[in-house]
Write a structure and sequence with these properties.
It is elongated and about 50 Å long. Helices cover 74% and strands 0% of the residues. It has two helices and no strands. With 58 residues, it is an all-alpha fold.
Length: 58
């Protein structure tokens, strides 16, 4: 499930980033900036999250 969810997110992100690019660098730079900020926020949330280890499903 994680791999398919990750692929879905990557595909949606790539389509969104491609639609931002219309031969002007401002739109493309804005997309990369937003992607960077969102990844930093997600990393911060993950660092502040619960530190319990992931348990395997049996």
């Amino acid at each position: 499930m994680n791999a398919s969810g990750s692929s879905l997110v990557a595909t949606v992100f790539a389509i969104g980033r491609g639609r931002l690019y219309d031969s002007t660098p401002l739109n493309l730079a804005s997309g990369f900036f937003l992607a960077g900020v969102s990844s930093l926020l997600l990393a911060e949330l993950a660092a502040r999250g619960d530190m319990s280890p992931v348990e395997a499903v049996r």
